[in-house]
Amino acid sequence: MDNKQNQLPLWEVFIQGKNGNPHRHAGSIHASDKNMALQNARDIYTRRGEGRSIWVVKSDNIIASTLDEEGEFFDTTDDKVYRHPTFYKVPEGVKNM
Amino acid sequence: MNTKDAVYNFCLRMADNNLISGQRLTEWCSRGPILEEDLAMTNLALDLFGQAESFFDYAASLNGNVKSADDLAFLRSERQYYNNLLVEQPNGDFAVTMMKQFLFSAFQKLMYEALTESNDDTIKGISTKALKEAKYHFRHSSEWVIRLGKGTKESHERVQLAINELWRFTTDMFEMNATDEELISTGISANLETIYGKWNFVVGEILKEATLAIPDAAKIIKGGCNGMHTEHLGHILTEMQYLQRAYPGATW
Asked: What three-state secondary structure class fits A46?
Protein backbone atom coordinates (compact mmCIF):
# COMPACT_ATOMS: atom_id res chain seq x y z
CA MET A 1 0.00 0.00 0.00
CA ASP A 2 1.12 3.54 -0.64
CA ASN A 3 2.46 4.67 2.70
CA LYS A 4 1.15 8.20 2.24
CA GLN A 5 -2.45 6.98 2.12
CA ASN A 6 -1.97 5.47 5.52
CA GLN A 7 -0.61 8.63 7.14
CA LEU A 8 -2.53 11.39 8.86
CA PRO A 9 -1.81 14.95 7.72
CA LEU A 10 1.49 16.52 8.73
CA TRP A 11 1.67 19.45 11.16
CA GLU A 12 4.58 21.68 12.20
CA VAL A 13 5.09 22.30 15.90
CA PHE A 14 6.36 25.51 17.49
CA ILE A 15 7.19 25.64 21.18
CA GLN A 16 7.65 28.66 23.41
CA GLY A 17 10.05 27.81 26.21
CA LYS A 18 9.61 30.85 28.42
CA ASN A 19 7.30 33.80 28.60
CA GLY A 20 8.52 36.48 26.17
CA ASN A 21 10.58 34.11 24.04
CA PRO A 22 9.61 33.47 20.45
CA HIS A 23 7.94 30.20 19.49
CA ARG A 24 10.61 28.04 17.91
CA HIS A 25 10.17 25.24 15.42
CA ALA A 26 10.48 21.96 17.31
CA GLY A 27 9.63 19.42 14.62
CA SER A 28 6.58 17.87 13.06
CA ILE A 29 3.86 15.38 13.94
CA HIS A 30 0.93 13.60 12.30
CA ALA A 31 -2.66 14.29 13.39
CA SER A 32 -6.15 14.20 11.93
CA ASP A 33 -7.40 17.47 13.43
CA LYS A 34 -6.21 20.49 15.39
CA ASN A 35 -7.03 19.08 18.84
CA MET A 36 -5.14 15.90 18.12
CA ALA A 37 -2.28 17.95 16.70
CA LEU A 38 -1.95 20.00 19.90
CA GLN A 39 -2.07 16.92 22.10
CA ASN A 40 0.39 14.97 20.00
CA ALA A 41 2.73 17.95 19.99
CA ARG A 42 2.42 18.18 23.76
CA ASP A 43 3.10 14.48 24.22
CA ILE A 44 6.08 14.38 21.91
CA TYR A 45 7.85 17.70 22.32
CA THR A 46 7.14 18.89 25.87
CA ARG A 47 7.64 15.74 27.93
CA ARG A 48 10.63 17.16 29.78
CA GLY A 49 9.27 20.57 30.65
CA GLU A 50 10.40 22.24 27.41
CA GLY A 51 7.42 24.47 26.94
CA ARG A 52 4.67 26.70 28.22
CA SER A 53 2.90 27.35 24.93
CA ILE A 54 2.49 25.38 21.70
CA TRP A 55 1.53 26.43 18.19
CA VAL A 56 0.67 23.88 15.55
CA VAL A 57 0.09 24.63 11.91
CA LYS A 58 -0.64 22.34 9.01
CA SER A 59 2.52 21.89 7.01
CA ASP A 60 0.55 22.61 3.82
CA ASN A 61 -0.12 26.10 5.13
CA ILE A 62 3.54 27.01 5.32
CA ILE A 63 4.86 28.70 2.20
CA ALA A 64 8.55 28.08 1.86
CA SER A 65 11.16 29.61 -0.40
CA THR A 66 12.85 27.11 -2.67
CA LEU A 67 16.53 26.38 -3.12
CA ASP A 68 16.23 27.56 -6.75
CA GLU A 69 15.44 31.01 -5.45
CA GLU A 70 18.34 31.07 -3.02
CA GLY A 71 20.47 33.34 -5.18
CA GLU A 72 17.97 36.07 -5.88
CA PHE A 73 16.53 35.88 -2.38
CA PHE A 74 19.62 35.97 -0.24
CA ASP A 75 22.89 36.57 -2.12
CA THR A 76 22.08 40.20 -2.79
CA THR A 77 22.56 41.10 0.86
CA ASP A 78 26.08 39.66 0.99
CA ASP A 79 27.81 42.92 0.01
CA LYS A 80 25.71 45.23 2.16
CA VAL A 81 27.58 44.96 5.45
CA TYR A 82 26.18 48.30 6.59
CA ARG A 83 22.85 46.55 7.09
CA HIS A 84 24.32 44.19 9.65
CA PRO A 85 24.11 45.40 13.25
CA THR A 86 27.76 44.55 13.85
CA PHE A 87 28.75 48.13 14.70
CA TYR A 88 26.85 48.05 17.98
CA LYS A 89 27.86 46.58 21.28
CA VAL A 90 25.27 44.45 22.97
CA PRO A 91 24.82 45.82 26.50
CA GLU A 92 25.58 43.48 29.32
CA GLY A 93 22.63 41.63 30.69
CA VAL A 94 20.75 41.41 27.42
CA LYS A 95 19.75 37.85 26.71
CA ASN A 96 17.99 36.21 23.81
CA MET A 97 19.62 38.32 21.06
CA MET B 1 -13.18 -0.64 60.76
CA ASN B 2 -10.83 1.96 62.21
CA THR B 3 -9.79 4.99 60.21
CA LYS B 4 -6.19 3.92 59.70
CA ASP B 5 -7.18 0.56 58.19
CA ALA B 6 -9.74 2.27 56.00
CA VAL B 7 -7.19 4.78 54.68
CA TYR B 8 -4.77 1.91 54.06
CA ASN B 9 -7.37 -0.08 52.08
CA PHE B 10 -8.45 2.99 50.19
CA CYS B 11 -4.87 3.84 49.18
CA LEU B 12 -4.40 0.30 47.91
CA ARG B 13 -7.59 0.57 45.86
CA MET B 14 -6.47 3.87 44.31
CA ALA B 15 -2.94 2.56 43.71
CA ASP B 16 -4.17 -0.73 42.24
CA ASN B 17 -6.46 1.07 39.81
CA ASN B 18 -3.54 3.16 38.59
CA LEU B 19 -1.07 0.30 38.49
CA ILE B 20 -3.30 -2.11 36.58
CA SER B 21 -4.57 0.42 34.06
CA GLY B 22 -0.98 1.62 33.55
CA GLN B 23 0.19 -1.94 33.05
CA ARG B 24 -2.53 -2.49 30.45
CA LEU B 25 -1.51 0.66 28.57
CA THR B 26 2.13 -0.42 28.42
CA GLU B 27 0.99 -3.44 26.41
CA TRP B 28 0.57 -0.94 23.57
CA CYS B 29 4.21 0.13 23.74
CA SER B 30 5.66 -0.12 20.21
CA ARG B 31 2.28 -1.38 18.93
CA GLY B 32 0.38 1.95 18.74
CA PRO B 33 -1.59 2.78 15.61
CA ILE B 34 0.76 5.71 14.93
CA LEU B 35 3.99 6.80 16.57
CA GLU B 36 2.31 9.82 18.18
CA GLU B 37 -0.38 7.73 19.85
CA ASP B 38 2.16 5.13 20.91
CA LEU B 39 3.99 7.83 22.85
CA ALA B 40 0.75 9.30 24.17
CA MET B 41 -0.39 5.97 25.62
CA THR B 42 2.93 5.24 27.27
CA ASN B 43 2.87 8.81 28.65
CA LEU B 44 -0.51 8.07 30.20
CA ALA B 45 0.89 4.85 31.64
CA LEU B 46 3.81 6.70 33.23
CA ASP B 47 1.43 9.21 34.82
CA LEU B 48 -0.62 6.34 36.22
CA PHE B 49 2.46 4.57 37.61
CA GLY B 50 3.46 7.81 39.31
CA GLN B 51 0.05 8.08 40.94
CA ALA B 52 0.19 4.42 41.96
CA GLU B 53 3.57 4.96 43.58
CA SER B 54 2.30 7.92 45.63
CA PHE B 55 -0.59 5.89 47.02
CA PHE B 56 1.58 2.81 47.65
CA ASP B 57 4.15 4.95 49.46
CA TYR B 58 1.48 6.42 51.67
CA ALA B 59 -0.05 3.01 52.38
CA ALA B 60 3.39 1.59 53.24
CA SER B 61 4.12 4.47 55.60
CA LEU B 62 0.86 3.86 57.48
CA ASN B 63 2.18 0.42 58.44
CA GLY B 64 5.62 1.64 59.43
CA ASN B 65 7.09 0.60 56.06
CA VAL B 66 7.15 -3.04 57.15
CA LYS B 67 6.14 -3.68 53.56
CA SER B 68 7.57 -1.30 50.99
CA ALA B 69 5.66 0.22 48.08
CA ASP B 70 7.35 -2.36 45.82
CA ASP B 71 6.25 -5.21 48.10
CA LEU B 72 2.67 -3.95 47.86
CA ALA B 73 2.83 -3.81 44.08
CA PHE B 74 4.67 -7.04 43.39
CA LEU B 75 3.96 -9.43 46.24
CA ARG B 76 0.19 -9.47 46.65
CA SER B 77 -2.05 -11.98 44.90
CA GLU B 78 -5.23 -11.17 43.04
CA ARG B 79 -7.64 -11.55 45.97
CA GLN B 80 -5.59 -8.86 47.75
CA TYR B 81 -5.95 -6.44 44.85
CA TYR B 82 -8.77 -3.89 45.09
CA ASN B 83 -8.77 -2.35 41.61
CA ASN B 84 -11.97 -1.93 39.62
CA LEU B 85 -12.85 -4.69 37.18
CA LEU B 86 -12.91 -2.24 34.28
CA VAL B 87 -9.17 -1.53 34.30
CA GLU B 88 -8.14 -5.20 34.23
CA GLN B 89 -10.17 -5.96 31.08
CA PRO B 90 -8.11 -6.86 27.99
CA ASN B 91 -7.14 -4.05 25.63
CA GLY B 92 -8.95 -5.46 22.61
CA ASP B 93 -8.57 -3.14 19.65
CA PHE B 94 -7.71 0.55 19.90
CA ALA B 95 -11.40 1.46 20.31
CA VAL B 96 -11.76 -0.82 23.35
CA THR B 97 -8.59 0.60 24.92
CA MET B 98 -9.66 4.21 24.41
CA MET B 99 -13.22 3.54 25.60
CA LYS B 100 -11.85 1.83 28.70
CA GLN B 101 -9.51 4.75 29.29
CA PHE B 102 -12.32 7.24 28.78
CA LEU B 103 -14.72 5.54 31.23
CA PHE B 104 -11.94 5.24 33.81
CA SER B 105 -10.46 8.73 33.33
CA ALA B 106 -13.88 10.32 33.76
CA PHE B 107 -14.16 8.49 37.08
CA GLN B 108 -10.64 9.41 38.16
CA LYS B 109 -11.08 13.05 37.29
CA LEU B 110 -14.25 13.31 39.40
CA MET B 111 -12.70 11.27 42.21
CA TYR B 112 -9.58 13.42 42.42
CA GLU B 113 -11.69 16.57 42.24
CA ALA B 114 -13.61 15.35 45.28
CA LEU B 115 -10.44 14.26 47.09
CA THR B 116 -8.91 17.73 46.83
CA GLU B 117 -11.33 18.46 49.70
CA SER B 118 -10.16 15.46 51.74
CA ASN B 119 -9.52 15.79 55.48
CA ASP B 120 -6.41 13.65 55.01
CA ASP B 121 -3.58 16.00 53.98
CA THR B 122 -1.56 13.36 52.12
CA ILE B 123 -4.52 12.13 50.08
CA LYS B 124 -5.44 15.74 49.40
CA GLY B 125 -1.88 16.48 48.23
CA ILE B 126 -1.59 13.44 45.96
CA SER B 127 -5.03 14.13 44.46
CA THR B 128 -4.36 17.79 43.77
CA LYS B 129 -1.27 16.84 41.79
CA ALA B 130 -2.92 13.86 40.07
CA LEU B 131 -5.99 15.86 39.06
CA LYS B 132 -4.03 17.76 36.40
CA GLU B 133 -2.96 14.48 34.85
CA ALA B 134 -6.43 12.95 35.09
CA LYS B 135 -7.93 15.99 33.34
CA TYR B 136 -5.53 15.49 30.46
CA HIS B 137 -6.24 11.75 30.30
CA PHE B 138 -9.95 12.49 30.17
CA ARG B 139 -9.47 15.04 27.43
CA HIS B 140 -7.27 12.77 25.36
CA SER B 141 -9.53 9.71 25.63
CA SER B 142 -12.84 11.56 25.27
CA GLU B 143 -11.66 13.22 22.07
CA TRP B 144 -10.74 9.82 20.68
CA VAL B 145 -14.16 8.43 21.61
CA ILE B 146 -15.84 11.31 19.78
CA ARG B 147 -13.50 11.01 16.82
CA LEU B 148 -14.07 7.26 16.48
CA GLY B 149 -17.82 7.58 17.05
CA LYS B 150 -18.19 10.22 14.37
CA GLY B 151 -15.47 8.81 12.12
CA THR B 152 -16.00 6.09 9.55
CA LYS B 153 -18.65 3.38 9.58
CA GLU B 154 -16.05 0.92 10.81
CA SER B 155 -14.69 3.13 13.59
CA HIS B 156 -18.24 3.83 14.78
CA GLU B 157 -19.09 0.14 14.85
CA ARG B 158 -15.93 -0.76 16.69
CA VAL B 159 -16.28 1.90 19.37
CA GLN B 160 -19.96 1.00 19.86
CA LEU B 161 -18.92 -2.63 20.29
CA ALA B 162 -16.34 -1.45 22.79
CA ILE B 163 -18.86 0.25 25.03
CA ASN B 164 -21.28 -2.67 24.69
CA GLU B 165 -18.51 -4.91 26.00
CA LEU B 166 -17.29 -2.64 28.81
CA TRP B 167 -20.48 -1.08 30.15
CA ARG B 168 -21.29 -3.95 32.52
CA PHE B 169 -18.07 -3.29 34.45
CA THR B 170 -18.71 0.42 35.06
CA THR B 171 -21.04 0.12 38.07
CA ASP B 172 -18.23 -1.66 39.89
CA MET B 173 -16.24 1.60 40.09
CA PHE B 174 -18.91 3.01 42.41
CA GLU B 175 -19.28 -0.01 44.72
CA MET B 176 -18.74 0.85 48.36
CA ASN B 177 -17.84 -1.25 51.37
CA ALA B 178 -16.90 -0.72 55.04
CA THR B 179 -13.81 1.22 53.93
CA ASP B 180 -15.96 3.85 52.24
CA GLU B 181 -18.36 4.05 55.17
CA GLU B 182 -15.53 4.91 57.53
CA LEU B 183 -13.89 7.39 55.14
CA ILE B 184 -17.12 9.18 54.26
CA SER B 185 -17.99 9.64 57.93
CA THR B 186 -14.53 11.09 58.63
CA GLY B 187 -14.56 13.35 55.56
CA ILE B 188 -11.51 11.65 54.04
CA SER B 189 -13.12 10.24 50.91
CA ALA B 190 -16.19 11.02 48.86
CA ASN B 191 -19.53 9.28 48.64
CA LEU B 192 -19.27 7.29 45.41
CA GLU B 193 -23.00 7.58 44.86
CA THR B 194 -22.55 11.31 44.36
CA ILE B 195 -19.62 10.66 42.03
CA TYR B 196 -21.75 8.14 40.11
CA GLY B 197 -24.37 10.79 39.40
CA LYS B 198 -21.77 13.21 38.08
CA TRP B 199 -20.03 10.46 36.10
CA ASN B 200 -23.25 9.45 34.37
CA PHE B 201 -23.77 13.03 33.28
CA VAL B 202 -20.22 13.65 32.05
CA VAL B 203 -19.96 10.32 30.23
CA GLY B 204 -23.47 10.68 28.79
CA GLU B 205 -22.63 14.07 27.27
CA ILE B 206 -19.54 12.73 25.50
CA LEU B 207 -21.29 9.59 24.26
CA LYS B 208 -24.11 11.71 22.90
CA GLU B 209 -21.63 13.85 21.01
CA ALA B 210 -19.94 10.70 19.74
CA THR B 211 -23.37 9.46 18.51
CA LEU B 212 -22.97 6.30 20.59
CA ALA B 213 -25.78 4.46 22.34
CA ILE B 214 -25.54 3.52 26.01
CA PRO B 215 -26.13 -0.24 26.20
CA ASP B 216 -28.70 -1.86 28.46
CA ALA B 217 -27.30 -2.49 31.91
CA ALA B 218 -28.57 -6.05 31.91
CA LYS B 219 -25.53 -7.93 33.10
CA ILE B 220 -23.78 -6.00 35.86
CA ILE B 221 -20.55 -7.45 37.22
CA LYS B 222 -19.10 -6.15 40.49
CA GLY B 223 -16.61 -7.05 43.19
CA GLY B 224 -13.28 -5.27 42.60
CA CYS B 225 -13.19 -3.32 45.86
CA ASN B 226 -13.65 -6.58 47.78
CA GLY B 227 -10.91 -8.42 45.93
CA MET B 228 -13.24 -10.39 43.65
CA HIS B 229 -11.89 -10.19 40.11
CA THR B 230 -12.40 -11.42 36.59
CA GLU B 231 -10.01 -14.06 35.24
CA HIS B 232 -7.85 -11.40 33.60
CA LEU B 233 -6.21 -9.95 36.71
CA GLY B 234 -4.37 -13.18 37.51
CA HIS B 235 -2.77 -13.16 34.08
CA ILE B 236 -1.67 -9.54 34.43
CA LEU B 237 -0.09 -10.23 37.82
CA THR B 238 1.64 -13.35 36.55
CA GLU B 239 3.45 -11.30 33.96
CA MET B 240 3.96 -8.15 36.05
CA GLN B 241 5.19 -9.91 39.18
CA TYR B 242 7.27 -12.60 37.52
CA LEU B 243 10.65 -11.07 38.24
CA GLN B 244 10.07 -10.35 41.93
CA ARG B 245 8.55 -13.78 42.44
CA ALA B 246 11.34 -15.63 40.64
CA TYR B 247 14.18 -13.55 42.08
CA PRO B 248 12.94 -12.19 45.44
CA GLY B 249 14.45 -8.82 46.28
CA ALA B 250 16.03 -8.37 42.86
CA THR B 251 17.07 -4.80 42.11
CA TRP B 252 18.66 -3.14 39.10
From this structure: coil
Q: Which site among B25, B28, B34 would you substitute to test the A interface, given the most A Cβ atoms closer than 10 Å to its Cβ?
A: B34
Provide the ipTM: 0.73
Could you tell me how many residues make up chain B?
252
Q: What is the pLDDT along chain B (252 residues), one digit of tens a residue?
A: 899 999 999 999 999 999 999 999 999 999 998 899 999 999 999 999 999 999 999 999 998 888 999 999 999 999 999 999 999 999 999 999 999 999 999 999 999 999 999 999 999 999 999 999 999 999 999 999 999 999 999 999 999 999 999 999 999 999 999 999 999 999 999 999 999 999 999 999 999 999 999 998 768 889 999 999 999 999 999 999 999 999 998 887
Alpha helices in B116-191 (DSSP H): 121-149, 153-166, 178-185
When CB atoms are compared, the residue of A29, A33, A47 closest to B36 is A29
Domain B3-246 is classified in which CATH homologous superfamily? Ferritin, core subunit, four-helix bundle (1.20.1260.10)
Tell me the nearest-neighbour CA distance from A25 into chain B, angstroms. 18
- Rounded-to-integer distance, Cα A6 and Cα A3, Å: 5
CB contact under 8 A, B40 and A39: yes
Provide, as residue numbers in chain A, all residues whose Cβ is less than 8 Å from the Cβ of B34.
8, 30
> At A53, is the secondary structure helix, strand, or coil?
strand
Shortest distance between the Cα of B247 and any Cα of chain A, in A, equals 33
Local structure of residue A1 (DSSP, 8 states) = -
Cα distance from A21 to chain B (closest Cα, Å)? 25
Structural domains for chain A: 3-63 (3.10.20.520)
Q: Phi and psi at residue A80, in whole multiples of 5°?
A: -115, 65
Q: Where are the domains of chain B?
A: 3-246
